[in-house]
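ok so for the tutorial part 2 we go from a plain amino acid sequence to predicted structure tokens. step 1 is just haveing the sequence, like this:
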Amino acid sequence: MRSLVIIPTYNERDNIGEIVPLVLAQDERLDVLIVDDNSPDGTGQLADALAAREPRVHVLHNPAKGGLGPAYVAGFRWALDRDYDLIFELDADLSHDPADLPRFLEAIRDCDVVLGSRYVPGGGVANWPLHRRLISQGGCLYARLVLGLPYSDLTGGFKCFRRRVLETVDLDLIGSGGYGFQIEMTYRAHHAGFKIKEIPIVFTDRVVGRSKMSRAIVLEAMVMVWRLRFASVQARRPIRLPRARPEFDSDLTRGA
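step 2 — the prediction. this is what the tokens look like for a chain of 256 residues:
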């Protein structure tokens, strides 16, 4: 099965050159798509150089900083247009271990979505201070209670989707720009009746660069879950959230 690992980037020059070879080494069926948000540190140019040397690496450039959600949606559309069977989400900062990718490939054999979970037995978080753990676990619990979902880790960003999930979930309706995007995608997949499985991962806090987490992103996620909840109880209408989506450059370095 053809598989694509989508890696969104913003100022990840010091990490992208390390994580891409690690991903490619896990399985010869894995390709990489770097979706760069016009990083001022030259991440996009480095990604282009990686793609010029390796045919399994592709690059999509966003002319403006659009955020996590629009970057992934653009990557999903790119993957669907090129007939990939499995589509992964993966952070660029080495917080997600590429060595876990084979376990995702195995787990997806009998389900539609695999969530890498920090909060199931065997999962965990390394190098996070206590307040960051409390924010993360509290956010997951909050989303679970509001949305009535059974999953332990709703804000994690290490995932695998079968293409039929992304074909069924209307990507035009995705309204979250920050980390609330992860909650929204899982909710929409669950709402559509797809089988979702959690597998344990250990999340390691980034060593190089700065976290993209902010108060605005946390607030967006808190408000978004209530919008999803209220929208879902209306008269069977599609769950539609307001959004602002930038346009992505369709000129790709490789694989156009």
